[in-house]
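Supplementary Note 3. Input sequence used for the single-chain structure prediction.
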Amino acid sequence: MAAVLQEPSPPFVPGLRLCRAFFAEAVRPLLDEAYPDLRYAAARLGPGSDVLGFDTERSVDHDWGPRLELFLTADDVDRYAEPLSALLATRLPKRVRGWSTHFEPPQGRIRTMAATDGPVAHRVLITDVGSWCEERLGFDPRRGVTTFDWLATPGQRLNEVTGGAVFHDGLAELGAVRHALGRYPEDVWRYLLACQWLRIAEEEAFVGRAAEAGDEPGSRVVAARLAREVMRLSLLLAGRFPPYSKWLGSAFAALPEAVGIAAALDEALRVDDAARRQAALCAAYEAAGDWQNRLGLAEPVDAVRRPFFDRPYPVIDAARFTTALLARVEDPEIAALPPVGGIDQYADSTAVLTRPRLARALMMAAWYEGNGR
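The predicted structure, written as discrete structure tokens, is reproduced below.
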């Protein structure tokens, strides 16, 4: 009978390190003994702070611990999934490196490590690569990755496939999938950057205008929204996939190229004076603009602040960067698209971004409009 884990926890270790030990010390020996000829891949991918490398002691309280994705061929899933799961339930050690391998409740959406004196309700997902990719992404990268696939897939989901770690790839498939999704193609990259600059262009004057109208809370809210957009822009400039909001700041802080941008955004979010707030945001825009110019993705743009027409609000006129980037897009399908960007640039609902079929359906609307279908 299972009980809530009462013993003091061992010292915290990063989850990926623990999962690697779980495979090497607990799972692999059982597979080698019971199914020595079975071809499989073992990895820790998918959702979870450990996959992104952002887990801490706090992460231990749910959906963290010794766990794996075990990939078989589709035929072998049908043949071996049930007996393999039963083998792991009865023969896995109750603990690895001091951490329980048993999770409660066994069928719960959120599960926590717990002690047990019976079978282990383990977190080894047994599946095949194609089915797993279809569920997480909405498509199978082994068949190729189209422009539409890139735009319809949130950065968080791309991180879940390309992050984490592969411990064994006996199928020779996971490495190919992760390589195929490792980086945006250049025209997709230009398009996403262009649309990200446009998001800044839409609101960059509002920080000053709201403050001038006496709406200090509104000015602060707009500044925070713009800081978020600059953080996402910085990750795109670095060739990274922006994660969802909980880990956006952590991913941004890990960019060595963005130290100056981070300092400017920090000031913009701290100061009480609207003029200083807008000036700090402009410093961040200028640094991001210089960064883009160095990348050579488009014709250089003068990355210097300027007045917003005849109003006294300094801006970068971010749409100039959008224009320069779109002028260098050669792919006719991308060039025809409206400047809305990828799905997580214009949809900000968890209920959308965690449902690949829904995300792809919404992206299809923009795709059809742009390509006249």
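Residues 1-5 have pLDDT under 50 and may be disordered. The first helix runs from residue 15 to 34.
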